[in-house]
Design a protein that fits this description.
The protein is of the alpha/beta class. The chain has helices at 10-21, 54-63, 78-83, 85-105, 139-158, 189-197, 225-241, 259-270, 294-300, 308-321, and strands at residues 2-5, 26-30, 45-48, 68-71, 110-116, 161-167, 169-171, 204-207, 219-220, 222-224, 247-251, 257-258, 276-279, 288-289.
Length: 328
Amino acid sequence: MILVVGGAGYIGSHTVKELLEQNFKVLVLDDLTTGHRVAVDSRAEFIKGNLGDSDLLQEIFAEKSISAVMHFAANSLVGESVVNPLKYYQNNVSATITLLGCMLEYGVKKFIFSSTAATYGIPKVDLITEETETNPINPYGQSKLMIEKILHDFHIAYGIDYVVLRYFNAAGAHITGGIGEDHTPESHLIPLVLQHLLGRRESITVFGNDYPTADGTCIRDYIHITDLSQAHIMSLKKMLVQDNFTRTYNLGNGLGYSVKEIIGMCEQVTGLKANVVIGDRRAGDPTQLIASSQKILDELGWETKFSLQTIIETAWKWHQENPNGFMR
């Protein structure tokens, strides 16, 4: 059985669905502070609770035959992490240490960790590889990098095998339209634009149009949520058959799209025109963040299958059918 911590969230719920499609038994642990119970596939077992609850974890590991853990249960709002770092270090670091300690106690030594491109901070290179210097500029990125370092130490000391997956911009929705992206508050560009085009927001703000790019707006790397999920499962399968498999992988498309290009593709897919407002630059926004995912392609054969247009088409389908998110 695979324990998916944070399996009711955006990335977690999509990964749970893909795990079940590939005949894994899945147990989801989620406290539903940001996740949605309805997003969890009914074929998965569900327990409401926090990954920092040592007593609950003891019960789970004592009663269930857990072969590996996938960890998606982090707080992930950059701005919030700056004004409330205590929350981020308690949940993202301290609670994760509690989880790892319980795993060790019960001999579970396979761990897949949801990390982030925020560990790189503001990189000095155009194409980010796993060897690019990590220098996070906010507590969120720091908390993720701390766990990466802890995993390294735990591997050496205790033999925990792990795969760190550094996400760039996860986007889109399941191809069926059954589950999608629903955050409160929403901070991601594509759902913000689509919510605006649905009439839920008066406008869409572009934060700065004077960057040294072709159209003056920031460039980011977008990856479909199902492609992201498949990377987790390919990593898991490799880890389950090969001991001492410990890796760090970037997950991205290797392609960059500007904010204006994203808005334009949303307009093309929906046939609607956006009301765009130009705002000031946000502090700490890098001009460009594009991932090289060559390492995971070479080692596991993983590659993205969904284009930007398909990413937005699947997201639009979800938002049209669920204009108020999972609240219907």
